Amino acid sequence: MGDVVTGAGDDQKSVKLPIPGKRNILITSALPYVNNVPHLGNIIGCVLSADVFARYCRLRGYNAIYICGTDEYGTATETKALEENCTPKEICDKYHAIHRDVYKWFNISFDEFGRTSTPQQTEVCQAIFKKLLENNWLSENTMQQLYCDTCSKFLADRLVEGNCPTPGCNYDSARGDQCEKCGKLLNPTELINPRCKVCATSPRIRDTDHLFLELPLLESKLRDYISTMSVAGSWSQNAIHATNAWLKEGLRQRCITRDLSGAFQSLLRNSRTSGKSGGKILKSGAISVYGKGQCPISHCNVSFYTNWDRGELDYDEDY
């Protein structure tokens, strides 16, 4: 199987590819945002359990690869950059190094600890996006979003705060995606007395154009795939129940772009897009049956980080 990388950030990495006839296992843990210094709770609740499983798999002789990396696209990064008065790229560079060094100190045995802002990540995301576009699985629709006239920009969910609309809660600092007091998932336009987190002024509702993944067109294929792979892949009951719950409701269009500024724009700059959505960035977490917050593209892409340019890994076939 080759040597195992015994710490995040090691310079020497062995190439790992699936081996026909062997049990090949891809292990990931949630990609940490680059907006904090990881603490013991992050280690225990996220990367440590996956590390234990990865070490077990290696001891059993399985061809296992454990990958992770920093999640550098999203409102969490933009918000942190605003707090520290610097660019998103500077935030990403700063906290990626901190995360890498902390995990290395704890001897977490990543085979690869990458980041989602690499050219390789961008290339893979664009390739997936272009395939969706070429197969007519994307559509452009208008949706309503909060817009701050003072900041001259649309506000993503975590850039908005306000009163929770849930009866009996009325928490005055609920975020645009979720109320931390009652736990209810929200849309920014549902907040009562919303305010921009940057300048504290009241935003207004305005139309904006975005790209949507036409999940209803893929529902039949997804049902067949899930029916087969949930058995072949020995999915957990939690994964099966969560997936079936989505399918039972019927799949709906899913927005896969977001209004963000700065370095994030480069993700789709070279892709062929239509209409007014060409300046948006791809929200990779939306391309998932499990919904917003999952990052299947990012989780897989960090495994290509080392070998992409050498042509030693085919992302269409190998994993």
Automatic annotation (TrEMBL):
Annotated Methionyl/Leucyl tRNA synthetase domain residues: 25-261
Reaction equations catalysed: tRNA(Met) + L-methionine + ATP = L-methionyl-tRNA(Met) + AMP + diphosphate
Pfam families: tRNA-synt_1g (PF09334)
Bilayer-crossing regions: none
Any one GO molecular-function label of the UniProt entry: ATP binding
UniProt-listed GO biological process terms: methionyl-tRNA aminoacylation; post-embryonic development; reproductive structure development
Keywords associated with the record: Aminoacyl-tRNA synthetase, ATP-binding, Ligase, Nucleotide-binding, Protein biosynthesis
PROSITE patterns: AA_TRNA_LIGASE_I
One GO cellular component term: aminoacyl-tRNA synthetase multienzyme complex
UniProt family annotation: Belongs to the class-I aminoacyl-tRNA synthetase family.
Name this polypeptide is given: Methionyl-tRNA synthetase
Organism: Mikania micrantha (bitter vine)
Lineage of the organism: Eukaryota, Viridiplantae, Streptophyta, Embryophyta, Tracheophyta
